[in-house]
Amino acid sequence: MSDKSSIEWTDATWNPVTGCTEVSPGCDHCYARTFAERFRGVPGHPYEQGFDLRLWPQRLELPLSWKKPRRIFVNSMSDLFHKDISDEYIEQVFDVMQRADHHVFQVLTKRSARLAKIAHKLPWAPHIWMGVSVETLQYAWRVDHLRDVPTQVRFISAEPLLGSLNGLNLAGIHWLIAGGESGAGFRPCDPNWVHELQAMCQIQDVSFFFKQWGGRIPKAYGRELDGRTWDEYPIVEANVLG
Q1: Cβ count within 10 A of residue 196
Q2: Are 157 and 134 in contact (CB under 8 A)?
Q3: Is residue 163 within 8 Å of residue 177, measured between CB atoms?
Q4: Half-sphere exposure of 50 (CA within 13 A, CB side)
Q5: pTM
Q6: Cα–Cα distance between 144 and 139 in angstroms, integer?
Q7: Residue 173's closest CA among 118, 132, 114?
């Protein structure tokens, strides 16, 4: 957790929950699990428990202490809609996000069914963005759940991109992030898959952000596509962050 982040599409990370469990092939080489498990058993370390799920209520109000407006990736080391996180705790996280309206919060989940089930209980302010991960077309149904969420900005994280998403329905989607996998045993990203997504976004007026090609380390093969970087954000951001 940091008020600065090396993740290209955000400025900071905030982890009121850490730890998670696998739900789909995109989790196979999870960077968060690899990092956390390095410290399992280290007394006093924040990841002494490895990647086991843990709530951190003492971290809940941290964004309120950050005075400079920034984009904040929520739970970069977990999934806020994990089945073992209570509705009440999720509501507490959203309450903080609603109050800290000088920031933009980027919430991302693979557990879209639960998101859709409890979305009506949550406050959806313009500065709270909601996204789902889609690594292959087999998980396109997550986007269908996302479309039912009454948030002003809906986004897709196609990272790690593990197959073609050609034909993915982008109706109601405002932003798409794509990226190849990184780390030991990374699965290569076919350039055609990325080109397909960029073209789909251009045709359907969806902001496109290309994070990386991936490799043994995240920046191994850079992040240029067709000789340039793609760093588009939803237009609504200008109205939120000023």
Answers
A1: 18
A2: yes
A3: no
A4: 8
A5: 0.94
A6: 10
A7: 132
